[in-house]
Design a protein that fits this description.
Number of strands: 0
Number of domains: 1
Shape: elongated
Strand content: under 5%
Order of helices and strands: HHHHHHHHHH
Number of helices: 10
Radius of gyration: 18 Å
Helix content: 40-55%
Structural class: mainly alpha
Length: 219
């Protein structure tokens, strides 16, 4: 991992402390949970895995090409996003609670492709890590003239936000597979059994099992 990756991971890990602290309390729209398996169904799981749609973690909204771009973009923003199922989370969200952003994503991804082809003569997914980072920086700074609506900065900010949600929201919404995001920041989930004394202890969360909303539904 290079210095840029280390700095980005450190920044996002710090930002995720706030995201993880409220992930079990319904920060992500409840409508997303309606697409998940219910506790009374046979073989219901705590998370929605990449096999949900049979297309590598997408198929509810994103086509193969757009999904590959979102997956690569999210991975550069947050190393580990692929394993955490961030693509699955974003795909489910765009088919449900975030359906009003479908055209936003279509146009943003089209503009991203145009910028990459004009600047680097290749699609985003075909660029090496350094050039992918340069593209992301250009979007963040609003320096990609191929964007009209959404603006480059708006597209960057939205995809960054959704990447963070997919990494650190409760697994019931389709991301944070195997609690990987919570394990990264040491968040134990929606724990129901901590006493005031436990909460005051620095060791309270150290050995606790991670509990998500799916487990809470079954109680």
């Amino acid at each position: 991992m290079n210095r840029h990756d280390e700095a980005r991971r450190a920044f996002l890990k710090g930002a995720a402390l706030g995201a993880g602290a409220v992930a079990g309390a319904g920060l992500v729209p409840d409508a997303l949970a309606q697409t998940q398996p219910q506790p009374h169904e046979p073989h219901a799981e705590a998370t929605t895995t990449a096999q949900s749609h049979g297309h590598g973690g997408h198929g509810a909204f994103l086509n193969d090409e757009d999904a590959a771009t979102v997956k690569a973009f999210a991975e550069r923003l947050m190393p580990g996003a692929t394993e955490a199922g961030v693509l699955n989370y974003i795909d489910l969200a765009l088919a449900g609670a975030y359906s009003d952003l479908q055209d936003f994503y279509r146009r943003g991804l089209s503009s991203l492709d145009a910028f990459c082809r004009n600047t680097h003569k290749a699609r985003f997914v075909d660029l090496d890590a350094a050039r992918q980072d340069a593209v992301i920086t250009a979007l963040e700074q609003g320096k990609a003239s191929e964007f009209a609506w959404p603006s480059a900065q708006a597209f960057f900010n939205t995809l960054r936000t959704h990447t963070m949600e997919g990494m650190f929201a409760d697994p019931v919404y389709g991301g944070n597979k195997d609690f990987s995001g919570w394990l990264l920041v040491g968040f134990p989930g929606a724990q129901p059994l901590f006493s005031p004394a436990d909460l005051a202890s620095k060791e309270a969360f150290g050995g606790a099992p991670i509990i998500g909303l799916q487990a809470q539904r079954g109680t």
